[in-house]
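Recap from last week: sequence in, structure out.
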Amino acid sequence: MKDDRATRPATYARFAPPGLICLLASGCRGAQSALDPAGEEAEAIHSLLVVTAVGGGIIWLLVVGLILYARRRDRPVLDVERAQKLISWGGVAFPTVILLALLSYALWKMPVARPWFDPGDAPMTVEVTGEQFWWRVRYLDQEGEPVFETANEILMPIGERVRFLLKAHDVIHSFWIPALGGKMDMIPGRTNVFSLKATRTGIYRGPCAEFCGSSHALMNLTARVLEPQAFREWFESRSAPAGRPAETEGQAAFLSHGCGACHSVRGTQARGQVGPDLTAFAKRERLGAGVAANTQENRVRFIRNPDGLKPGVRMPAFSMVPDSELEAIATYLGGLE
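Predicted structure tokens:
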């Protein structure tokens, strides 16, 4: 029986490049892809990447072509003058021209990729503070006062520039929604100003782009881009005075076990400022800054043992609370709309 093992490397080598290309291309789209831009700044960064890659590819082909030509054994021996011309034009002149063109293009694109803007051009201001390991989000009025607060999600209208005030409470974090724009660090004691302008509706995901602790990889932000009218309706509903939720067994357990000392729920006695604001918590698709789906089971798991889902989280465990009360609290949170 013939042993075909010797032919296997050649077979693998034949199929490896297409397979590698397909594997890499599979990550080029999605809610967290810089290669699928949905914002003005992201589109500028994407075009800069494409042009730079093409320019670099041309230089690579020129240099590699010269090397392969020089290694050919069947070509006639070049005289010194012709060899110098090949090196001067192919190895120096053309690469220099291409690099200068790429530099000029990059300098031209920089103001679009990170635009300077007048605060008056951004009618809405959002303050985002990086915490361990979640995002505090406050929508501000024209005087810079908070209108309402939420956590781990940003809603913004399409076609309108949004101004962000980026802060950090504990350690350095980094704000980045790849499909909408570039990144900017969030530094304790400093406020960095940033802006984004979305060009396509949808739901986009942003990770913390600076290592901030044990749950750094579990600290994600959701950005929802809505049509202007839909955004106005949402903003007005959240800005309106909060009604008082119906008193339930879950609300009583939530307050009696001290949850209101860390969390706020508008319209109730829960006014804590340490943890995320839980008003309208039921409308969030994920809990724990994206760590798990917002389901009854996951809410119970997170309350009972937060560290089990998100290592290093500062929320204490409530494993001493009876299961019936944990279920009641989770049901109460699932009804906060």
